[in-house]
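Q: Could you write out the predicted structure for this multi-component system? I'm mainly interested in how the pieces pack against one another.
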Amino acid sequence: MSLNSFGHLLRFTTWGESHGPAIGAVVDGCPPGLQLSEADIQPWLDRRRPGTSRFTTQRREPDQVRILSGVFEGRTTGTPISLLIENEDQRSKDYSEVAQAYRPGHADITYDAKYGLRDWRGGGRSSARETASRVAAGAVARLVIPEVSIRAYLVELGGDPIDRAAFDEAQIEANPFHCPDAAAAERWAEAVDAARKDGSSLGAVVECVATGVPAGWGAPLYAKLDAELAGAMMGINAVKGVEIGDGFGAARLRGEQNADPIRPGPAFDSNHSGGILGGISTGQPVVVRVAFKPTSSILTPVPTIGRDGQATEIATKGRHDPCVGIRGAPVVEAMMALVLADQKLLHRGQCG
Amino acid sequence: MSLNSFGHLLRFTTWGESHGPAIGAVVDGCPPGLQLSEADIQPWLDRRRPGTSRFTTQRREPDQVRILSGVFEGRTTGTPISLLIENEDQRSKDYSEVAQAYRPGHADITYDAKYGLRDWRGGGRSSARETASRVAAGAVARLVIPEVSIRAYLVELGGDPIDRAAFDEAQIEANPFHCPDAAAAERWAEAVDAARKDGSSLGAVVECVATGVPAGWGAPLYAKLDAELAGAMMGINAVKGVEIGDGFGAARLRGEQNADPIRPGPAFDSNHSGGILGGISTGQPVVVRVAFKPTSSILTPVPTIGRDGQATEIATKGRHDPCVGIRGAPVVEAMMALVLADQKLLHRGQCG
Amino acid sequence: MSLNSFGHLLRFTTWGESHGPAIGAVVDGCPPGLQLSEADIQPWLDRRRPGTSRFTTQRREPDQVRILSGVFEGRTTGTPISLLIENEDQRSKDYSEVAQAYRPGHADITYDAKYGLRDWRGGGRSSARETASRVAAGAVARLVIPEVSIRAYLVELGGDPIDRAAFDEAQIEANPFHCPDAAAAERWAEAVDAARKDGSSLGAVVECVATGVPAGWGAPLYAKLDAELAGAMMGINAVKGVEIGDGFGAARLRGEQNADPIRPGPAFDSNHSGGILGGISTGQPVVVRVAFKPTSSILTPVPTIGRDGQATEIATKGRHDPCVGIRGAPVVEAMMALVLADQKLLHRGQCG
Amino acid sequence: MSLNSFGHLLRFTTWGESHGPAIGAVVDGCPPGLQLSEADIQPWLDRRRPGTSRFTTQRREPDQVRILSGVFEGRTTGTPISLLIENEDQRSKDYSEVAQAYRPGHADITYDAKYGLRDWRGGGRSSARETASRVAAGAVARLVIPEVSIRAYLVELGGDPIDRAAFDEAQIEANPFHCPDAAAAERWAEAVDAARKDGSSLGAVVECVATGVPAGWGAPLYAKLDAELAGAMMGINAVKGVEIGDGFGAARLRGEQNADPIRPGPAFDSNHSGGILGGISTGQPVVVRVAFKPTSSILTPVPTIGRDGQATEIATKGRHDPCVGIRGAPVVEAMMALVLADQKLLHRGQCG
C-alpha cells in the first residue's frame, strides 16, 4: 500500500521515477463526454516545465504528454485515461555521488530505511519530477469543473512577502515567479540569483485561489474539503505548511473579528474562512496557502553519512531549482483542481 | 460518501450528533491480542471532557465510554471495536434560535447548502462534540504503538506565544491550558477571562510531538506521513492551519540552514524537518503545529441571515468554549496516534 | 484491516459479536432528505428474526433496532446513520464446549489461526447473527432505490428444486421457506423436520430478482455490478456459490442460445444474462442465485481437535437453524439492495 | 469512480482499450526487494496470448510487456510498477458494423446506456483484451507469494465434463485446452471445431486450485477470502458463476457429509469447504470454479437494434475465440494470485 492514488470518485494514480524511461498517471472516474486531447494538457505541463527561465533547473525535459486510453473521437469515454510522459534528459551520472551518501533534507535516508533499497537516480520516486504527472492529471480535472477558475501565485520568496496593496493579477504571468507584485518580482530575481551564486537556495509561499466553487462541496467529516486540500498540498514535494483562509493568522484574531458576517444572497462581508466552513464550501473563493522549504539540493557541503553509516559530507551538484516554490505553483493549482473535481462528483453522487 | 471513516489498515468510523442520544466510533483493523478495557480509554476522554475548568464550556457530559464489541476476556480479538458514549446534557432549547438563523463562522449555512436540511441542535454533526469519538478511537490507537509517546500542548493563545526558553514539560498538566510555560499560562488565564467577559473568544496554536517513531513509517506518495497528518489535523473542528517541523518558518530559511545534517547513528544535528522527509519518518520526533481559530459561538451579535434569506443578527447564547484550542490538544494527540498506528500497520504490511 | 465495511458511496460498517451486548451498523453516505424511522427497518428484521417457525433456530431475539444518529425530524440528514440492536438471549453456557474444540465447518479454527484467539461464544463475530446488521442497513438502502423491487426466495432445499412451472409469487410469503412453489414447500417441511430429527441439516439455493433497475448501473471494471453482487453474496455466512442469470448453466449453452436478442425499446427476448452485460445493468431484471451449504452446527458427532491439538469429537448442541438458507433469503435481499443503492449513487456521481 | 483498481494493500489499476495504442497496469504496494524483470511476466502473457492454437482467436498480438517503473537494478523498490503492452494488430475496420448496432451478449448497449458514448473498436474497454493487464499484474503478485502454487484448468467445455478419475496434472499443459483429461481434450477439439464451423461458440468451466496457502489469510467480514475471490472471478469477462469448494453441490449435501472432519496436525479428511471457513483460509488447497458463457461474438445472425433504436440483426465477423473459457484459465490464475498476495499483506499488516 504504497498508496500512489489520490481521490475518491475522480481518482488518479501516478507512477514513475525521475530517471526511469517515463512517468505517468492514470485518471479514473472522469465523467464521459468531455472534450479532451493532448492540447488540453500540454499548456499546463509547459507552465511547470523546467528550464523556462534562469530561475529554474536547467534540466531539459520537453514533457510531451500522450493520452493512451480513455478518449475516443476526441471525447472522454468514462474509462481510465492513461497519460504518459517520457523522460528524455536522464543524465544519471550526475547522481553517482548520491548513490553512496544521503543528501540531508532529501528522502534518500528515509526511502532506504523504509524499503531497504532505493533508486538513487535523481531521487527516484521521491523526485519532484513526479509532479508533472499531477499537473497532467490536474488538467483533466479542470475539465470536470468548468465553473471554477484556479489561480496560484507566490506571495513570499526568501522571506520577502509581496505588498498586498500592489497586487496585480496581470503580473502573475508576466514574470518568472508567478508574482502578482512587480516590485517584489524584481527583488526576488536578485535574491534568487544571489542564492544560486552562493550555492544556496530559498523557500517560498504559494497562495492559490479557486473562484466559482458553489456552496455545498465537501464530504464531512473525514474528507472535508479543507482536510482534503491540506493532505493534497502537504503531499507536494518540499511543502511544510498549509493554511486555509487566514490560517495561523486566524489564531490571533478574536471571535468577532474572525466571523465572516453573512448578508442576504447569501454574501459575506469578509472571507477569513477561506471559503470553507465545517469542511464544506461556502460559495466564496477557496483560499489556500502553502509553504515550500528551500531546495535541499545545494552546492554548499553539508555533513551526512554514507550508506555504510560512516560520516562524510555532500554537496549536491547537478541541475537544481534554486527555489522549488516557483515551479510549485502549477502543482498547487493541479491539486486544487483535482480535489475540487473529486468533491463535485462526490456531492453529485450523494446529494445530486 | 459522507466519508465518516479515517485510516487505511487501522480504520475508524464515527457517528453521532451533538444532541442525539449518543455518539460513537467503530475501530476496525486493530491487531488482536492487545489488552483493552474501558479503563484504557476513559482517562483520555476525561482530559478532553468539558466543564473541567472555568476556561471550557460548562456543558456537563460525563463522557462514559462503553465497549460494545471487539474485546473478549480483556483482549482485542481483531474484530471491530464499537465504542459508545451517551449524550446526557442535551438542552436543545438553548439552540432554538440557531434553527432559524445561520451562525457566522459555523457550518450551519454550508450544511443547509449541501444537504438541504440540517440538525440544528448544537450544530448537529458539525459540533466539536464529535471529537470525543476521535479521542476514544485514539486511545485504542495508542495501544497499537506502545513504542511511541505523544504530547500536545498550546504554544500560543490569543496571539500570545510561550517563551520557548521557559518550556517545562511538567507544566503541561499543571494548568488548564496544557501550557508548558507557567508564566504564559497565567497571562492566558487573564486573557480568556477577559474575552469571555467581553462575549468574545480567542484562537490558539497547538503543538504536538511524537517521540519513539522509528524511521520508515509513511506511505508515499499520496498517503505520506505528513500529508496524512495534515489531513487529519485540518479536519478537526476550527483548525485553519497545519505545519510540519519548521512549517511556514522553513520558507524563510536558506537551504543550508534548513538541511538537518546527518551524523552516524544515524542522528541529526537539528530537526527542521519535523521528523519527516519525503513523507517518511526519519526516526526523529514528529512535530506538528495546528492553528485553531477563535470559537465562532460568541455573545457579540454578528450580522447574518435566516433560513428565509432575510437579514438578521445572531448572538450565540449557550455554553461555549471561549477558546476551542484548549480542548483541541487532546484531539490533536488522538489524531496523531491514529495516523501513526495506521502507518505502522501499513509499513508492516508492505515491508514487514 | 479487518475490513468490516462494504460499499463505495453508500458504505456501511458492521460490528458486534453473537453474544456481546449488542450488534450494529453504521450506514454512511445515505442521501439526505429521505424519510426514515425505526418502522422502516423493523419489518425487514422481523422477516429474518429467529424463532418465527419451527424450521429456524429457537433462539429468542426481538431484534429491536434503534436509530442513534443521522436522522432529524424524521428525515435523513446525510450524516452517518448508526443502527443498534441489543442482544438479549445470550445463553453463553450453551457454547462452553465450543471453547475447547473446533466445530468442523465453522470458522472456529480459522479465527484462531488468524488472530491467535477468538470469542467462542456462539461463534463470536463469525456468527450469522451479524447478518441482522446487514438487513438493517439494507432497509436503509431500499429507501435510496424506490424504483427497484427486490424479491428473494428459495428455489432448492436439500437438493429438491421447485417446479418452475408452479412458480407463484404469492406463495413466497405464505410459507416459512420463502418458497414460490406450494408443493415444494410441503416436501421441504418434511425434509427439514426429518433432518432435524436426525441431528442433521440441509442446504438450499436462494434466488433473488431485482426489477426496476434502469440500464447503466455498474462501475466497470473492478466494481462491475455482477462482481459486486458476487462478492456481496459470497460473503454471507454459509454461502459457497453465486450465479448471475443462467450462471453455470450458461456454460452449457451455445452462443446463439445464450445471446439475448435485442428489440426496439430496447427490450430483450430472453434474460440469460441476468440483467447484466459487461458489468452494467441492461434494464432487465437482475437475477442472482446463491448456494447455502447445510448448517455446520449439527447434533451428529464429527471428529475434530481441541485447542490443544488433540483429537476429539464434537456434537454441536444449542439452538441452530436446520437450514440456514431459509433465513438467508432476507440477507440476500439486503445485500442486493445495498449493492444497487451504492451503484446508483456511483452512477449519478460519475455520469449524472 | 469507474473503479479500475483492485486490491487493498497490493493494488493494481488497469487502463486501455482493445484498439487503442496500448494497454497497461500499475501495480502499487508490491513489497520491495523482489527480483523482477520482464522475463518474469512474459511467460504468463504468452500462455494467455491469442493465436497460439486454432482454438483461439487469430488476432496476432505479441503482447510484449515493458516495465516502466518500480524496479531498480533488477529488484522491486516498493514504488508503483507500471506495465505497458502495446497493441499491434488493430484492424479497426473489422468492427465498423459494431459502431452502428449493438451485439447481443456484449457490453455495447450497456456502455452506451451508461456513458452516452462508447469506443466501439473491438469492444473498447469491455474487450477481453484488458485481461492481459491482469495477467501481467498477476505475474507480479506471484512473486509476493512464493509459498503458493496456482493451477487453473478446464473441467467442462460445451457441457462436456472431464472424467475426474482420469485427472492427470501433466496433461494440463499438453493440450490447448488446459485440460487434465486427455480423452476429454480430444472430444473438446472436435466440439470446438464443429462450433466454429457452425458460426457458433461454446462455454466452459475453469477450476483453479491454490496450494501452499497457510491458514489465516482472509479479512472478515467484507473482504473475506471467498468474497474477494468471487468478486475477482465474476469480474472477468464472460463469467457468470463462481463456486468455492463444493459450491452449488454443497447445497445438496447434508450437514454431516459437508463438514470436513479435523484431525491433529491440523489436517482435514476432506475439502468440501474449498480451503476457506468463515472467509479465512484453513491451510487446505483453495478451490474455485468459474463458469464462462459461450463467446457472444458469433457468425450466426442475431436480432438486435442499432444506435438509432431501429431493429436490425448482426453477425459478428472478425477474429474471435470460439470458447473464451480456454483463454480464461490464465486470467483466473492471475486473479487468484492477486487476491492471495493482497490477503497475505493484509494479514501481515494486521496480525503480523
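A: Regarding packing and overall arrangement: Chain A touches chain B through 115 residues (CB under 8 Å).
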